[in-house]
Write a structure and sequence with these properties.
alpha+beta, 6 strands, 6-stranded mixed β-sheet, single chain, Nuclear Transport Factor 2, Chain: A, about 45% strand
Length: about 110
Amino acid sequence: MRSEMDIPDPIRRFVEATNSGDNEAFLDTFTADAFLGDWGASFFGRDEISNWNQSDNIGVQANLRIISVAELGEIYRVRMAVTGNGFNGEGEMVFTLKGGRIVRLIIT
């Protein structure tokens, strides 16, 4: 388990951009060909991830708080507490990082 001081930069920036409502910074955390899966719904590339961001993340004033981070090589299993005008509660986000960005994010 990692402390907040050890959170990989792309994940830290993902949380900060979400919490500050910065759409551009949020999208910049992803590679151009990134994949995001949210409870079975699939989003490919930054354009589709931007749409998800507006309907399920920054667009509903989501606020994220990292509870725990487990590292599995380039994969990070992150337990998050989420509040806002959409989903509220705890969930898991599994990030795959490549070149300082998120290449794959699965939300469950």
